[in-house]
Amino acid sequence: MDAEKISLEEKKVKPVVDHLNDLLANYHIHYQKLRGCHWNVKGKSFFTLHVKFEELYTEALTTIDELAERILTLGKPPYSTFNDYITTSTIKEIQTIGLKDTDMVKALIEDMAALIEMERQILDITADAGDDGTNDMVNRFMQFKEKNTWMLRSFVNED
């Protein structure tokens, strides 16, 4: 790794990179779930959810790119195969074809809760490593999901 080139200690950065790769894998599964929800949503909430799901998958795609680039900045290659994503991710794929709109939202709420939990762990690890750059980035990701989780819970009347 090249962490020393940005004033970080290699041994302290390794767990950061490992957790970022895990987060990256989970984001890929979450991203594809968002795409499936966007493509397959039906019913009275179509116009509302179709737009919201597009907003969420667009943000997830940006997050995926930022995660991969941060992993590279820290000197390690990011996961880049579907096999890596599927075998590493704790978030699981679901079939969105025929899924009720509120069940889609509930599945995304669960994903976001899992991602937030992972991000909170990364914040602790990055603090220990003195990696403020990663900490700031992950904190921003988490804040976006916290707000959107509240919105989605309100949509399904679970706030």
TrEMBL record:
Keywords tagged on the record: DNA-binding
A molecular function GO annotation: DNA binding
PROSITE patterns attached to this UniProt entry: DPS_1 (PS00818), DPS_2 (PS00819)
A Pfam family annotated for this UniProt entry: Ferritin
CDD domains documented for this protein: DPS (cd01043)
Nucleotide-binding is among the record's keywords: no
Coiled-coil boundaries: none
PANTHER family for the chain: GENERAL STRESS PROTEIN 20U (PTHR42932)
Family to which the UniProt record says this protein belongs: Belongs to the Dps family.
Protein name: DNA starvation/stationary phase protection protein
